[in-house]
Amino acid sequence: MSLKSISLSCVCALALSGSAWAHHSPANYDVGKVIQVTGTVTEYHFSNPHSWIYMTSIGEDGEPQAWSLESGSTGQLVRHGWDIDSLKPGDQISVYIKPLRSGAYGGLLGVIVRSDGTNLCDLEGAPWPQLGTVALACKASQALRRIALYGINSSEVPCT
């Protein structure tokens, strides 16, 4: 392979890597802030490359707010215990999200608390130190799920 071919390959790889980083960057979210929104699921799209939850809440002014919440891929969510039936329209939920910087009703999903008190977690999109014990509970339930699925002891369970 010639030096020219190698150089061209490197330039192409670098050019394409910027697009991948931009796609996976959480720059459109205020990653330093976490808010809680309570409302009703209107749609749930368990899909790739990102799953989406649409919900309606009631604002402080008494008016409905339609929220769009971005979540992970189906593979990522399955590893956290989600499936296609995890949510359905009409479910009452409370969510912890990193809101959109624009102020629009949307955000990056972190944790869903269902009406029965159980959690659905997706803490991989950005750091979540603001959630404290909620995040720890999610990590613990993820570790227990891996133990149950793979039959390994807790010292071998990678918590991500």
Task: Explain this structure.
The chain has a 5-stranded mixed barrel with strand order 1-2-3-5-4. Residues 10-22 and 154-160 have low confidence and may be disordered. The protein has a single domain (35-156), classed as Beta Barrel (OB fold (Dihydrolipoamide Acetyltransferase, E2P)). A hairpin with a 5-residue loop joins strand 2 (52-58) and strand 3 (64-70). The longest helix is centred in the first third of the chain and has 22 residues, at 3-24. It is an alpha+beta fold. The protein starts with a helix and ends in a 10-residue tail after the last helix. The protein contains 3 helices and 6 strands, in the order H-E-E-E-H-E-E-E-H.
* Main beta-sheet strand count, sense and barrel state: 5 strands, mixed, barrel
Helix percentage range: 25-40%
Overall outline:
globular
The CATH topology: OB fold (Dihydrolipoamide Acetyltransferase, E2P)
The separation of the N and C termini measures: 40 Å
State the CATH architecture. Beta Barrel
Segments where pLDDT lies below 50 for 5+ residues? 10-22, 154-160
Task: List how many beta strands DSSP finds.
Answer: 6
Order of helices and strands: HEEEHEEEH
Radius of gyration: 19 Å
Strand content: 25-35%
Total individual domains: 1
Q: Output the CATH class name.
A: Mainly Beta
Q: Write out the strand line-up for the largest beta sheet, numbering strands in chain order.
A: 1-2-3-5-4
Structural class, by secondary structure, is alpha+beta
What's the overall average pLDDT, rounded? 79
Number of helices: 3
